[in-house]
Design a protein that fits this description.
The protein starts with a strand and ends with a helix. It has a domain at 45-153: 3-Layer(aba) Sandwich (Glutaredoxin), CATH 3.40.30.10. Strands 1-6-8-7-9-10 form a 6-stranded mixed β-sheet, sandwiched between helices. A two-stranded antiparallel sheet has the order 2-3. A two-stranded antiparallel sheet has the order 4-5. The protein is 29% helix and 28% strand. The longest helix is centred in the middle third of the chain and has 17 residues, at 78-94. α2 crosses α4 (141-153). The chain contains 4 helices and 10 strands, in the order ββββββαβαβαββα. By secondary structure, it is of the alpha/beta class.
């Protein structure tokens, strides 16, 4: 799981080739990007990102040009630990189409309260700065992907 490094303009990611930190602007997360130093292609994360603060979460959800799939979880939760490797698979396959962000509801209790999280794991899909779908319970990668695709395809 990658630490979510964020500033007011985008995600800060390390180039897999040279390690240089690069900013991926929120409005260009779906676009092809290259490292500023070595010019190798870089893109949106291929692993789930961990929201470090509520402010980081809010900026990402409000400004990302890609849909954001949020996994509300806690370290003591057995089903949450079971779904973690499934989310790794989803993030790897969905890179460039949507972002997977994990929110530890024990560490960021205000987000759990604000979004009315009553059971974990709960997954929510955000697009255009607002929640458009939610499901609860552990599920395999294929079911997670199907949920996200159905949610994104549903008329709003």
């Amino acid at each position: 799981m990658a630490n979510l490094e964020i500033d007011d303009r985008g995600l800060l990611v390390a180039c897999p080739a040279c390690g240089q930190r690069n900013r991926l602007a929120f409005d260009r997360l779906a676009a092809a990007s290259r490292c500023g130093r070595c010019k190798q292609p870089i893109g949106a994360s291929t692993s789930p990102l961990e929201a470090a603060t509520a402010a980081d979460f809010d900026r990402l959800v409000a400004n990302a040009s890609l849909p954001v799939v949020v996994d509300y979880w806690a370290p003591w939760c057995g089903p949450c630990r079971m779904v973690a490797p499934e989310l790794e698979k989803v993030a790897a396959r969905a890179a460039g189409r949507w972002l997977i962000v994990k929110v530890n509801t024990d560490a960021l209790t205000d987000l759990g309260t604000r979004f009315g999280i009553r059971s974990i794991p709960t997954m929510a899909v955000f697009a255009g700065g607002r929640e458009i779908g939610r499901t609860a319970g552990a599920r395999p990668a294929a079911d997670i992907e199907a949920f996200v695709q159905q949610t994104l395809a549903a008329p709003r």
